[in-house]
Specification:
Layout (H helix, E strand, L loop, with lengths): L15 H21 L1 H7 L6 H21 L9 H20 L10 E3 L2 E3 L2 H19 L6 H20 L4 H17 L3 H20 L2 H14 L11 H13 L24 H34 L3 H25 L17 H19 L7
Antiparallel strand pairs: 1-2
Helix pairs in contact: 1-3, 1-11, 1-13, 3-13, 4-5, 4-6, 5-6, 5-7, 5-12, 5-13, 6-7, 7-8, 7-12, 10-11, 11-12, 11-13, 12-13
Length: 378
Amino acid sequence: MAVAVQEPSRLRWPDLTIMVLAIILAVAGVVVSGSARVFTEAVNARGLLPGGIVRSFVHLGLGVLVMILTMLPDYRRFARGGLAWTMLIGICFLLVLALVCPAVGNTHRWIHIGRFSLQPSEPAKAVLVLLVAATIAHADREIETVRGLVRPLAVAGVIGGLVLVGKDLGTPVLMFLTTIILCLAAGARFKHIGTLLGAGLLGGIGAVILEPYRVGRVMGFTKALGFSPEGMSEIPYQLRQSLLAIGSGGVAGKGFGASTQKAFFLPEADNDFIFAVIAEELGLFVALALIAAFLILAWRGLKVADDAQDELGRLIAIGATWMLSGQALCHMGVVAGILPTKGLTLPFFSTGGWSLIVSCAMAGLLLNVSLRRRPYGC
């Protein structure tokens, strides 16, 4: 898993588009998520200033700090043997600890210690990107063989498997796709990738069949694909309310703060379905602008990967790009009924300090690689 640390490279300007976009999205996310949970905050507030607002700005400050701290050290140091193993053991310990903690919403995703809470699956995304990239880069061209695929798949399997045991299917699917994308980008053979995708599909079907509520989500998804106003009642409640929110927003939206679906009609309005509230309040144009922002982020992230000075930097940039833009597009697809319902947050926007902090960390990794990119023309 270790990658040799070379001599420090000459630093260049970080990718300013990624930096500016990340900060804008983070600030906008704090504002929008605050609007999406306004009714919950009104019910729970015990003072003049709801605690959620204070926490959101604290998370924003921590997110920007983490972005800077992730950007500055040479990314190759993250792949050193000692640190890599420490990250793997540490994140596995936290995921196991979450499994023995009391369930929240019939899932084991959280660790609660007094007023402090941690969702280990969020930092696990960043750890997975770093460790899978490191194992592939260390294997060099062995990735073209079955033997070369074993180590990155083992790392992803351990981390994703522990998340799956906690009854979270969306995050392991995202992790699996991230691993496949990194292996493919590193030169894995298509026949091996096809086999892995087939095995992953069978595993996903098995995970769905084992949980009746997941079967219901898939059936509801198929009904939503054949959507008609007359068949609206056949669509599962959460997805139906999401589609109503998007449709009622129209082109211009109802106005910031004017969503009705967030008033306890749409479950997880500030989290897994926050894009529906954005579309309802701010309308089609803003929703399209948000999609464009994540597509620009993907473009710049892939440009950073293309200019990276080594294979490790290239893979880290590709993984971080997918974890931000790919996850965002998956979230939007779920909210619009294009993908089956699963719990995926919208990076920078969904409520939850760890989601925001990890999104900033991913942006920091992209900025880190861009700081040490090859000179143009080389």
